[in-house]
Design a protein that fits this description.
Elements: H1 2-18, H2 40-55, H3 59-69, H4 76-92, H5 98-108, H6 114-128, E1 147-149, E2 158-160, H7 163-172, H8 174-184, H9 191-204
Antiparallel strand pairs: 1-2
Helix pairs in contact: 2-5, 4-6, 5-6
Length: 205
């Protein structure tokens, strides 16, 4: 009885541990989810973050590492395409953006490759561009010649002058200026303001 029990135990032991079973891992087909491309708005946000780090003097190594971490989402070519759009946008703006310009130049000076070089060029264009001055167009009558009485002439005789000539006369002749102010009820003493007042009166009359 004891012998049979020992033999049964040996068989049980071999059955339990004698043969190693290799479990093959279950193959799971996981469909790779396509990562959507970053929009221009996304790139603007990321680039602002990059410029902020550069402004905080984090240095060349930090900037290079920052770009490297995003290579799987944003290639160098994608950055360059976006920077070209940024250039068109900022150069078309009527108001200068010197803060952005200085940060772009600062990024370029780190020497981090094409992205930095392009940023530097944009920054320099912003800093060196000449602001466009607004063009004011005079909409009044062209070369209207007011008739000014000349004390040296007879009562029936008058001298015809242009607005430009009258302006010079008002600048040089205090007495004439005061006379016109009195005669036309003008409340300013500046020659150019007097001319404008006369033009307004001529248009309204």
């Amino acid at each position: 009885m004891l012998k049979r029990l020992i033999q049964w135990f040996k068989r049980f032991w071999r059955g339990l541990f004698g043969s190693k079973q290799t479990h093959k891992p279950v193959k799971q087909d996981v469909e790779a989810t396509a990562v959507p491309p970053l929009s221009d708005t996304d790139l603007e946000f990321l680039f602002t973050e990059l410029l902020a780090g550069v402004y905080q003097a984090k240095g060349q190594a930090w900037a290079q590492n920052w770009l490297h971490k995003l290579e799987h989402r944003v290639s160098t070519q994608r950055w360059l395409e976006w920077l070209n759009k940024l250039e068109e946008k900022v150069l078309a703006a009527s108001l200068p953006n010197n803060e952005l310009a200085s940060r772009l130049v600062q990024l370029g000076e780190l020497g981090i490759g094409e992205v930095g070089d392009t940023a530097y060029k944009i920054g320099m264009k912003l800093l060196t561009r000449t602001p466009v001055e607004p063009i004011w167009e005079y909409t009044g009558p062209d070369e209207t010649k007011p008739v000014i009485a000349n004390e040296n002439f007879a009562d029936e005789e008058y001298e015809t002058v242009t607005w430009d000539e009258l302006l010079i006369m008002l600048q040089e002749n205090e007495e004439l200026r005061q006379q016109i102010i009195h005669d036309f009820g003008i409340e300013v003493d500046d020659p150019q303001a007097i001319i404008q007042a006369l033009i307004n009166k001529a248009q309204s009359g």
